Amino acid sequence: xxxxxxxxxxxxxxxxxxxxxxxxxxxxxxxxxxxxxxxxxxxxxxxxxxxxxxxxxxxxxxxxxxxxxxxxxxxxxxxxxxxxxxxxxxxxxxxxxxxxxxxxxxxxxxxxxxxxxxxxxxxxxxxxxxxxxxxxxxxxxxxxxxxxxxxxxxxxxxxxxxxxxxxxxxxxxxxxxxxxxxxxxxxxxxxxxxxxxxxxxxxxxxxxxxxxxxxxxxxxxxxxxxxxxxxxxxxxxxxxxxxxxxxxxxxxxxxxxxxxxxxxxxxxxxxxxxxxx
Amino acid sequence: xxxxxxxxxxxxxxxxxxxxxxxxxxxxxxxxxxxxxxxxxxxxxxxxxxxxxxxxxxxxxxxxxxxxxxxxxxxxxxxxxxxxxxxxxxxxxxxxxxxxxxxxxxxxxxxxxxxxxxxxxxxxxxxxxxxxxxxxxxxxxxxxxxxxxxxxxxxxxxxxxxxxxxxxxxxxxxxxxxxxxxxxxxxxxxxxxxxxxxxxxxxxxxxxxxxxxxxxxxxxxxxxxxxxxxxxxxxxxxxxxxxxxxxxxxxxxxxxxxxxxxxxxxxx
Lengths: 277, 268
Hints:
The complex is a heterodimer of chains A (277) and B (268). By secondary structure, chain A is an all-alpha fold. Chain A has two domains: 1-56, no CATH class; 70-271, MetI-like fold, CATH 1.10.3720.10. Helix content of chain A is 79%, strand content 0%. Chain A has helices at 9-15, 19-27, 29-52, 64-74, 78-111, 113-127, 135-142, 146-170, 174-182, 187-224, 230-239, 243-271. The termini of chain A are far apart. Chain B has two domains: 9-88 and 167-267, 3-Layer(aba) Sandwich (Rossmann fold), CATH 3.40.50; 97-163, no CATH class. Chain B has helices at 57-65, 104-114, 120-132, 148-160, 178-195, 206-212, 246-267; strands spanning 15-22, 34-41, 46-50, 72-77, 89-92, 166-170, 198-203, 215-220, 225-231. In chain B, helix 5 links the parallel strand 6 (166-170) and strand 7 (198-203). The longest helix of chain B has 22 residues, at 246-267. The radius of gyration of chain B is 18 Å and the shape is globular. The chains are: A mainly alpha (277), B alpha/beta (268). At the A-B interface, helix 9 and helix 10 of A face helix 2 of B.
C-alpha cells in the first residue's frame, strides 16, 4: 500500500524557509527566552571546556564555574553590599541630576529658538567629546568622595536626555500644532497638553539610555579615584589577582544594570500607555 | 448616525472675502499664492472649494481661520476679522490629528479643556456630540482602536465641540476609502442641514463637492483665483443615489469644465 501526501503551499513554504514562517517561530515567547539562554549556555560550556583543556590560564581567565563559586562567596560578604550601596547612590544621584538637567535644558532648547540657536552648538560639541576624559578633572574639583562620581554620572547621562528631548519636541506633529493654535491654546497649554506627551516616548528612550550610562559614569569615576564602591572593588581584586572575584563583581554590576533598566521600563509602561509595541 | 437638532444652539455666521491676496515667499517679487479673491458666503450656507494642488484652497481656509496672515483685501467672519482661537470657528484637518494619550471622550472634550471649561455641561455636551457622530459606544476607546472613518468622526465631534457658527473642513475625508468617504459625505451633509452651520469644505473631489454643498467655487492656480462659482440646485436632504442622476452629472461637468478652463488659462 502506498500513500502519498500532496505537498501544500504551506509545507513547500516551510521547506523553502518562508520568511513569514521564520518570523512566526521567532515571535514565540518560549523561543525568545530559550534562544538567548541557548547562546549563553554555549558560551559558558565553551569557556569551561577551554579551561578544562588548559587552553585558558585559570589565573587570568578563570573558568565560568570558578566565577559562579566566587559570586556565591561574594554576596555573603558585608564589604560587597557596602560597595554596592555606594555605587548605587552615585548612580541614582547622578542619574537624577543629569536626567533632570537634561530634561530642563532639552525642553528649553526644543521650545525656544533663541535658546536653541545659542546653546545647541555647545551641546552637540560636548556630545561628541569623550566625557570620560573629564573624570580626573572632576576628581580634582570634587575630591575622592561620592561627589566626583555623582558629577561624572550626571555629565555622562545628561546628553542622551537632552538630545532625545530636543528630537522629541522637534517631532511634534505640525497638524496638531495648528489644531492647538486654532483652538486658541496658550503656549503653556500647548506645551503641557501637546508637546510634553508627544515628545515623551522619544525622551523616555533617552532616559533609559541615561540610566545605564549613569552606572558606567559612577564606575569610571571610581576607577579614576575613590576609596569605596564596586569600581574600587574590581580594581583591588584585580591587583590581588582574584580575577574570578573580579568577574563576579562584573556579574553583580550587570544584574544591577538590568534591574535598573527593568524598573525604568516599568515606569515607562505605566506612564506612556499610548505607545504600543 | 442620529442627528439631534439640539446639538447646536449657534446659528451659522456669514463669511466675506474682498480682494484677498496672499504671497507666501518673503520676496516682494514672488508670485502671489492667492490673488484678488472675492467671495460672499451666506449664513448657514455650505460651500465647497475645489481646484488643483497649489491653487491656495487650504491657504484660503487658514486665512479665514485666522491661522495665517494675508497681504491685501478684507476678510470678515461674522462681524469681525479672523483671529486665531475664535470659539465660533471649528477647524477640521485632512488628518484626524487625535491625541493618542487621550481616549475618544477626552479628545472630543479637548477644546473645553483648552478653554478651561469643565463640569457637567461639558460632559453632557461631549455625550451629545458622540451621539451625533454615532460613537457613543466608543467613548472610552483609545484612538488606535478606531478605524479611519471613526477617527474622522471623532475629529468632527471635536470641531463641533464649542458649537461654532462656522465649520472649516480641509479635505477631511481624503484619507478614507471611497465607500467610507461617500458614507461620511452624506452624513455630514445631513448634519449640516440640521445644525445649520456655515461650512466651507476644501476638496479635490468634484463629486464630493457637488454632493455636499450649496455652491461649488472652483479655483485655478498661479495665482490662486476664482474661476467659477456654481450653484448646486440639488434638493436636500442629499442621498447617495443623486450621484447617478443626470442633473448631478451636469453640475459635475460644469465644475470640471470651469476647472479645465482655469488650467488652460494657467498654461497660457
